[in-house]
Design goal:
By secondary structure, the chain is an alpha+beta fold. The protein has ten helices and eleven strands. The chain has a single domain, classed as Gcn5-related N-acetyltransferase (GNAT) (Aminopeptidase). The protein is globular, with a radius of gyration of 18 Å.
Length: 279
């Protein structure tokens, strides 16, 4: 969806409601600013910055997952949810390149968009009934040259500040596992997750495109991908068996993270304790 199309979507009666920073070109959203010796973190403030994000996503998802993109512009990962989301960007100081990103969809924006991205893959009825408003994280990626841990730490620090500012508690999102091995890693991880943390039936979701787990061999030595490992380390729970996304060639695990129950040890590491504890 173009910036102009999104701007036209919001009627005059909705003018007081939330609009993503890059759509509004809103200087008042510059509150999110984190600086280190090597990186700058902010919300995307313009269409051009969102295109930089989409270029990075295209590069990572096509090269590492073999994702298929059918969007109107070659070399960009675009979908109908981008226009409703804020986009956190981590920019390398030296090169000025965007090297990390997350997008965030607030519940009111999800309602305007017709639902969450996750609802394309999962039935979320129980989650929404039990927890109410949910904030969705998505399209996480970090450039291969910047995966030492510093960038993901900065992204999570920004997420914490964003959640605190908007007074939100629950995060959902999809953690993807490549299907290039035929699903061996995803099925093996599902077995391990089930043995360690059974799904809470009151929060259970259901995949719309179920992975045929009974037809896939297992390998108990398989390790979790970094993103899924980070979620579980923070204290996230898995809410469903994996759903198969043929366009991205991934098996997606639906995760739920309650900010009030983050593992304190790692909350401090990601700068989350202060944000959660501040009244």
């Amino acid at each position: 969806m173009s910036e102009l199309a999104v701007q036209r979507y919001f009627s005059h009666s909705e003018a007081h409601l939330f609009v993503p920073a890059w759509v509004a070109n809103a200087p008042n959203e510059s509150w999110l600013s984190i600086e280190t010796e090597n990186y700058l973190v902010s919300l995307a403030q313009s269409r051009d910055e969102v295109r930089e994000v989409q270029q990075l996503r295209y590069q990572i998802f096509s090269e590492e997952y073999g994702a298929i993109f059918l969007g109107p512009e070659k070399g960009l990962d675009q979908d109908q949810f981008d226009g409703y989301c804020d986009h956190i960007i981590v920019r390398e100081r030296q090169s000025a390149r965007v090297v990390g990103t997350y997008r965030i969809l607030l519940p009111e924006q999800a309602r305007r968009a017709g639902g969450y991205y996750s609802q394309q893959e999962f039935f979320l009825t129980r989650l929404q009934r039990q927890l109410g408003d949910l904030v969705e994280l998505g399209r996480s990626c970090v450039h291969p040259d910047h995966r030492s841990g510093a960038v993901i730490m900065l992204l999570w620090k920004a997420i914490a500040q964003y959640m605190h500012r908007h007074r939100c508690q629950y995060l959902i999102g999809c953690a993807s596992v490549s299907m290039r091995d035929g699903g061996v890693q995803a099925a093996s991880l599902w077995d391990r997750i089930c043995s360690k943390m059974p799904i809470d039936p009151t929060l259970e979701a259901y995949p719309k495109n179920r992975l045929p787990l009974d037809q896939i061999v297992r390998d108990s030595t398989m390790a979790e991908p970094p993103l899924l490992r980070a979620y579980l380390t923070l204290g996230a729970v898995i809410c469903s068996e994996p759903s198969w996304d043929p366009d991205f060639n991934t098996a997606d695990f639906l995760i739920l993270l309650n900010l009030s129950k983050i593992n304190p040890r790692y909350a401090r590491h990601f700068g989350l304790i202060e944000a959660v504890a501040t009244p």
